[in-house]
Amino acid sequence: MSAKNLQEVLDSAGNTVELLRNSQLGAYIYPVVPAEFTNWRREQLAWAKTAVLYDQTHHMINLFISGPDALRLLTDTGVNSFANFPVNRAKQFVPVSPEGGVIGDGILFHLAEEEYVWVGRAPVGNWLMYYGRSGYNVDIRLDARSPMRPYGKPVTRELWRFEIQGPQAWPIIEKLAGGPVDRVKFFHMGYLTIASLGLKVRTLRHGMAGAPGLELWGPYEDFDRVRDAILEAGAEYGIEMCGSRAYSSNCLESGWIPSPLPAIYTAEELRGYREWLPANGYEATNAIAGSFVSDDIRDYYTNPWELGYGAHVKFDHDFVGRDACEAIAARKQEQRRKVTLAWNDEDVTRLFGSIFGEGPGYQVFDLPNANYGSSNFDSVTDADGNIVGLSMFTGYSSNERKALSLATVSPDVPLGAEVRVIWGEPDGGTRKTTVQPHEQLAVRAIVSPAPYTKMARETYREGWRTQAAAV
Question: How far apart are CA 346 and CA 452, in angstroms?
């Protein structure tokens, strides 16, 4: 008999880690939007040199939450404070499990009195839909992410969502509006009228590419004409449409770890949740990839402080996981912290060179996004082989001409330290569709800030458990 829900899938598998490490799902897919409009290098360079137009319409869910108890639902499930969250503001909403592990994150928009929309990946949406089922006077409506269809084929969404980012973003925005546009504060919302269309759209001040920009959205029936108007306004400023291949790598520079494993597999309090989740959903098929292997799925959970969300945690309200977060906060100086790892050029060249000639070689490093699972965990070690962190999102930046990964490392690992990222899975690799037989490679890397900024690579602290060459 086939499993009816996630709990039955887990009970049947016996070992949750092995189930997810051998998932056949593969890497996270960004649907509908073409991989490239020009080429991914040019599109990456545009968000640093000119401007890009991100099409965010298709790969995230919109979860509309309204009603008298909408705010209470959000307060009860999020670590964030809602003491000051007026209409036309947004925030990065972070829920945790009863054990204090992050479920995921995304952007919560306060649209109107008693009306919100949360935008992001499935785990947080599922979490909110489950908790909103009982005890809350709310209406919840899901606008699911788009199916895998070629660009130009019919796709039905409730909203289009674009983002204009880069150093030339604001001149483009003002040309689009036909005049000056106030630079509202970060995560403040407003309106913009597209002059050539006479169309009023909603906006959010955002900054994915490190320069002032806006996220814009509106009814999906206006998708084509809004996109065309933005591209026309941006043509003289060198705007590029960003494909899904480059889009998925922008967080390497901005420092956002997009896909932590939802920490929902173990808490007994969540048995009912696991029985509610489907047997073929995100949580059941999510593919864990990388060199870090543990028999305990809890070793793949991350808490808010490890992911850089510690400042979001406020104890001015009760919420799911509060007791666990209070215990973690009491030891926050001991928690791993988020960093960027700048990979050694010689070692990366060796990695790429392994695709030529005989032998099993190394696990392929795809460009610009090298992740080969949905949630990625590569061991970060010191020169003695001790695990000092986890590398969780890996790829290449044309702007930095560097292989980078976002990681969480022990507090005693200083900026400038040389560590090693163990690239590839043990024992030749798992049965994932994205893996071929391979050997592992220890790649040297320099611990750097997140978000990543150029730092004097020569100044890393020689003597912090370093050695001259990769293993």
Answer: 20
Could you identify the residue written with the tokens 């990979």? Answer: 343
| Cis-peptide, bond into residue 95, ω within 30° of zero | no
Maximum alpha-carbon separation in the chain: 65
What is the model's pLDDT at position 25?
Answer: 87
Could you tell me how far CA 127 lies from the centroid of its own chain? 17
Residues of the chain with pLDDT > 90, as a percent, come to 87
Strands 288-289, 375-376: pairing is: parallel
191: closest CA among 173, 209, 212, 207? 173
Q: Which pTM was predicted?
A: 0.94
- Integer Cα distance of 43 and 40 in angstroms: 5
Task: Say if CB 178 and CB 64 are below 8 A apart.
Answer: no
Reported confidence tier of residue 359, pLDDT bands at 50, 70, 90: confident
Residue pair 124/104 in contact by the 8 Å Cβ criterion: yes
Question: In whole angstroms, what is the distance from residue 228 CA to residue 238 CA?
Answer: 14
pLDDT band at 360 (very low <50, low <70, confident <90, very high): confident
Rounded Cα distance between 8 and 68, Å, is: 35
Contact between 327 and 85 (Cβ < 8 Å)? no
